[in-house]
Amino acid sequence: MPEYIRMHLNESPFSPSPAVRLRVLKYLERLNLYHARELEEEFVRRLSEYTGMPTEYLSVFPGSSEALIAILRYCKRRGLKLVTVWPSFHGIVEFASMEGVDLGYAKLVPERFDLDLAELSRRGGPGKALYIVNPNNPTSNMLFEDFETLEFLLRRYGLVIVDEAYYEFSGFTVARGVLEWGKLVVVRTFSKAFSLAGARVGYVIANPEVVRELNSLEAAFSVPITSLAAALGALEDLDYVRKVVSEVVLLRDELKELLRSEGLGVLDSRTNFLLIRTPVRGLEVARELARRGIRVRSYRDPDLEYFIRVSIASREGNKKFFEELRRVLALHPRVVNA
Fold it and tell me: Do 118 and 248 reside in the same domain of the chain?
């Protein structure tokens, strides 16, 4: 067990399904091989059933981060400049810098963190790719939940990348749009609802031509056999996944109401984390909580300097966080319950 409560990485507070263990054990003896074809074929078949997409529209990566890096390489090859809404997933900034891809920003509407469609339109163009996380990280809210907005964006950008890392919590996906629009790419992960962050398995849903090109930008045999086996086991027990999602949502909403009862602003979340407005700078709050054995995410960005992002932990972990947060904020009596 870690010495601190992990509420900073948006991990699942629950272990994987028992079916995951059985599948991994089965393939442990195959680790002398780079890949197991029958495992790969069975996994893609199951993934096709789960997503409702033909197998040729699917590509598997060692985590959604590696999928995003391949997409950025695709953008660079095609001469596409990248635009992301902001605040957004901090990793996309790091990855764009690593891959030498030009990156521009379209700010979300302050405080509400909604899409600014006028700004997105102004930033668009056929030589631009747009990256959006939906629901958004770190703000936890849906940026759009209709295909009209998606069509608006597709008309204004040469490529639209929708990161659906939290799809299982939101229940909304644009995946079927890939069948109609060749310039739409959807990215997902097994790290959140499937409780497989350590296995590092992600996937892309895209037009088959895009899939083939993305595959050419990834090293061969990059997803380990045991990781693929773990993901297959998770797909074989979707009842467990749904149970995890349901429990996380319950714990999330319990914690949200507790925080609001203290007068704190908390965005309505469609993810496995909460964005909490703090009356003092989030960096100070996070530093104090770390001293007390709790890790949360804070930001230097001016748009988020008075917020912390908190992954949902166990009920005991959430309770401990709430109690310690109250003590931390009590150190600033001028702003408590303001």
Answer: no
336 in a domain, yes or no?
no
Q: What local confidence, expressed as pLDDT, does residue 3 receive? A: 74
Residue 124 has pLDDT above 60, yes or no: yes
Q: Is residue 184 part of a domain?
A: yes
Q: Which pTM does this prediction carry?
A: 0.96
Q: What does the pLDDT look like over 67-92, one tens digit per residue?
A: 999 999 999 999 999 999 999 999 99
Question: How many other CB atoms sit within 10 Å of the CB of residue 30?
Answer: 14
Q: Has residue 337 got a pLDDT over 70?
A: no
The structure tokens listed for 215 are: 């595959």
The per-residue pLDDT for 332 is 79
Q: Residue 338: inside a domain, yes or no?
A: no
Q: Domain of 83? A: 18-236
Q: Is 268 inside a domain boundary? A: yes
Give the pLDDT confidence score for residue 2 in this predicted structure: 53
Q: Is the pLDDT of residue 310 over 90?
A: yes
Domain boundary among 236, 264, 280: 236
Adjacent-strand bridge partners of 142 = none
Residues 6+ apart with CB under 8 A from 211: 56, 57, 58, 59, 204
Name the domain boundary from 182, 216, 236.
236
